[in-house]
Amino acid sequence: MSWFSWLRPSRPALSATQQARLEQLPGARPLGDGSLRAQRWVVLDLETSGLNLNRDQVLSIGAVVIEDAAIDFSQQFERTLQRADAKPGPSVLIHGLGPSAIAAGCDPVEALLDFMTFVGDSPLLAFHAPFDQHMLGRALKDSLGYHLAHPFLDVADLAPLLCPQASIRETGLDNWIDHFNLQVGERHHASADALATAELALILFSRARQQHLDSPLALQQRVSQWKRRTQAPSF
């Protein structure tokens, strides 16, 4: 055995069936210049044990699909992940996932395989996407040895970009829900938050088309330009 073998992260132990499912997952597809309306998007929300990017765990995954400029209610995803070592923290007061709910959850390997099968090669949308992207990517690497390469767009970036006239100081999902008078029956539940994010995204996609941003690639490029401009230091 190499003296340095202990430095290498061990690969997750998957069954033959799980390994076969992993190998059959389609690769990520970059955002293209086709119609924004025709693109299939997976709108994601995660509930986690906390906000520490390196220590906390994904507890629940909720997702819905936008396709043909509408939410496709026949394509929805929801799983609570079983986490034997998860300790209840302050976040349980927000999402309500206590020890009994987590103990009754799905095997993380099966849940994550199911989710990536649901995603396919579609891009993802989330509100404050960098957090969800990092947490999902870490969960996939830890449980499956899978590298997440799917493009993400952040609805928290799209909203101020496409609605510059909105005088919103806070950047939370609730602020934009209130701004557009969206009727949301439940919050801080992965599936409900994914649905609320999808409803907001549809409004923003309509605004994008009005501004001649007609493709996913054009929208991604405009977001990148906007972020460089707004984050540039002022002298």
From TrEMBL:
Protein name, as recorded: DNA polymerase-3 subunit epsilon
Keywords of this entry: Exonuclease, Hydrolase, Nuclease
Signal peptide span: none
A Gene Ontology molecular function term of the record: nucleic acid binding
Keyword Repressor included in the entry's annotation: no
PANTHER family tied to this protein: DNA POLYMERASE III SUBUNIT EPSILON (PTHR30231), PROTEIN NEN2 (PTHR30231:SF4)
Superkingdom in the source lineage: Bacteria
Residues of the Exonuclease domain: 40-210
GO annotation, cellular component aspect: cytosol
GO biological process: DNA metabolic process
This protein's record includes keyword Hydrolase: yes
Alphabetical list of SUPFAM superfamilies matching this protein: Ribonuclease H-like
